[in-house]
Amino acid sequence: MHEALTDGTVTLLPLGPGDFAAHYAGEDEELVRWLSGDPATPEGLRHYLECCDRWWRDGGPFHTFGIRTGPELALAGTVDVQTGQYYLREGQANLAYGLYAPWRGRGLATRAVRLACSYAAAIGCTEAVIRCEPANTRSAAVAARAGFAFLQRRSEPDGRVLDWHLRDLRPAPHVTSPRSRP
């Protein structure tokens, strides 16, 4: 599935080597702190973007989208739909996302997460998970606005403590109302 996902404001397209300049320029301290852990080097970023391209060709386990907006589809950030990770149950996808500083505070991350949930459901996932550090209140707010419920705070095998937010991706069951009797 490589076609664009859009809600009319945000468009998700696969991230790849052609996004190097915009992604490199967009990285700031907040993205490093919450998402990547270390500042990108040009060589490391080129390798990562080549991996993104390969993962798209191979069907995962990471499906990394560029979050794009406007008529020119400017790159505003990224969102990953990660499957097959050791910490996930069968049918779960982990979502990881970040916006570049000029694009924050506009609701774009929430829109991107909703679109990423649609993508995860389309590839067969039944639940989406957002894991974030307890101090990352912006990420937790995005999760809540995108329909996720707080699940738990837990210690991860790498020693980090993360809050888990969960969203069921299965269609809601159809409910019929009882018929009135005359």
TrEMBL record:
<feature type="domain" description="N-acetyltransferase">
    <location>
        <begin position="10"/>
        <end position="173"/>
    </location>
</feature>
<dbReference type="InterPro" id="IPR016181">
    <property type="entry name" value="Acyl_CoA_acyltransferase"/>
</dbReference>
<protein>
    <submittedName>
        <fullName>GNAT family N-acetyltransferase</fullName>
    </submittedName>
</protein>
<dbReference type="InterPro" id="IPR051908">
    <property type="entry name" value="Ribosomal_N-acetyltransferase"/>
</dbReference>
<dbReference type="Pfam" id="PF13302">
    <property type="entry name" value="Acetyltransf_3"/>
</dbReference>
<dbReference type="InterPro" id="IPR000182">
    <property type="entry name" value="GNAT_dom"/>
</dbReference>
